[in-house]
Amino acid sequence: MGKFRINGNRLWDRLDELAQVGAIPGTLGSSRLALTKEDGQARDLVVSWMRQLEMEVSIDQIGNVIGLWHGKGTDRNLPPVMTGSHIDTVRSGGRFDGNLGVLAGLEIVQTVKEQKVLTEHPVAVSFFTGEEGARFAPDMLGSLVYVGGLDLQTALDTISVNGEKLSDELKSVGYSGTAPCPGITPKIFLELHIEQGPVLESEGIDIGAVESVQGISWTELTIEGQSNHAGTTPMTMRRDAGYVAGRISTFVRELTDQMGGAQVGTVGKVDLTPNLVNVVASKASMTVDLRNTSEAMLREAEDRLVTFCEEISRKESVKIASESLARFEPVEFNQDLVSQISTTAKNLGYTTRQMTSGAGHDAQMLARVCPAAMIFVPSKGGLSHNPAEYTSLEEISAGANVLLDIIVNAAGGCR
Ligand code: GLV
Ligand code: MN
Ligand code: MN
Q1: CB of 194 closer than 6 A to ligand 1?
Q2: How far apart are CA 403 and CA 400, in angstroms?
Q3: For labelling alongside 179, which of 118, 249, 316, 320 has CA 20 to 30 A away?
Q4: Which domains does the chain show, CATH number per domain?
Q5: Alpha-carbon dihedral of residues 320, 323, 329, 330, nearest 10 degrees?
Q6: Range list of H helices, 74-163
Q7: pLDDT tens for residues 121-141?
Q8: Which ligand 1 atom sits nearest the alpha carbon of residue 98?
C-alpha cells in the first residue's frame, strides 16, 4: 500500500482543541466529569467532527456515541470494525486519557477517506459514557451497558457521588438517544490509549501490545461513630469514625506490602462528617480501590479487607457498612489481535512489548462480545489522572499508525 500514514499534527490539534473544553487553567489538562456541562460540550465538538467527516452518528439509550463511516463499496450489512474510547475525564484529568483513542479513530477515518481506501466493512468510532467512574460508578459504565453486561434501567438509575440521577444528567446534556442497548456487535474492537504507567518509558519502548487487564474491585465504606467534643472526650470513650478511616487506609497499604506481587490498593476518597477541627468525626465515607492480575489474589485482598473492617468495628465500637461500586475480573484480550499489534509495530519500525493494563478500559468490556485488544503508547513519568499527563506527538503518531494498519486490514481495505 506504500506509505500510508495518519496526519499526526491534525490529530495533535484536535487533542488540543478538545482539551480546551473544561481546561484546567495553567495546565495541559481538563476537567470533564461524565455528563457535566463540560462533557456535553466535548460531546458536541466530537460529534461535529464526525459529521464533518460524513460519518453517520448514532446515540444510544445510555448516551454512547457511535460514528459510522462507510465509503463506496462498503457493505453496510457487515459488522463494523470499531475503534474508540471515552472523552469524560476524572476531575483533575489529562488531555490524552481516552481522548486519544477517540480522536485517533477520527484521524483514521479522515486518512482512509483522503487516500480513497475502499473498505468492505464499515469503520466505527465510538465514545462511551462514563468510562472513568469518578462521578457515576462503576467505571466503564457505558461500554458495559453496550455489551449487555449491565441492564439499561439499572444504569440509568445510577446515583452520582453528589446525589444526581444519571438519566437526568444524560437528558440535560442532550445525549439520551434512541439506539438500542446492547448495541451492534463489531467485527473487532481495538483501542489506542496512553499507558498511564511507567513501563514503556522506562524500557524505551514505543508500542505496548496489551494482552490483558487486571481485575478491579471498588468498595465504598461508610463508618458510623459518634461526634463528641475533641477536648473533653477521653480517648477510651471515643467512637471515632475519622480514626477508623485512617486505620483502614493504613491497612490497605500494609495489605499490598504483605501480598506483594501485582497487588495494588488505594484509598482515594475520604469524607468526614462534620469535618471540623474540634469535633470527633461521627461519620466517614471512604473508597477502597483494589486491583490484581490474579482473580484469586484479588479475592484474597477483598476478604482480608472485610476481616479487618469487622475487627476494627468491634474494637472501636463503630458500624461499618460496605457497598461494592465496581467489580470486574481480570480480562484476557484476543491473542491474534495482540500478535497483529506486535507484528504491525515491528513492520513500521517501532519497538514493542506485550504487557498488561493496570487501568480499566472500554476495550475490556467489548472483549466480552468480540475480539478486542489495545495499543499503548508511553506516558511521560508514568503520570496519568493528573493534568500533567503527557505523550509526545511522535509517540501518539506511532500508536495511531499501528491502529490505522490493523483497522484498515480488518475492514478489508484496498486502494
Ligand atoms: C479507569 O480509568 C480506571 O482504571 O480507574
Ligand atoms: Mn481511559
Ligand atoms: Mn482514566
Answers
A1: no
A2: 5
A3: 118
A4: 8-213+331-410 (3.40.630.10), 215-328 (3.30.70.360)
A5: -70
A6: 99-114, 141-146, 152-156
A7: 999 999 999 999 999 999 999
A8: 2
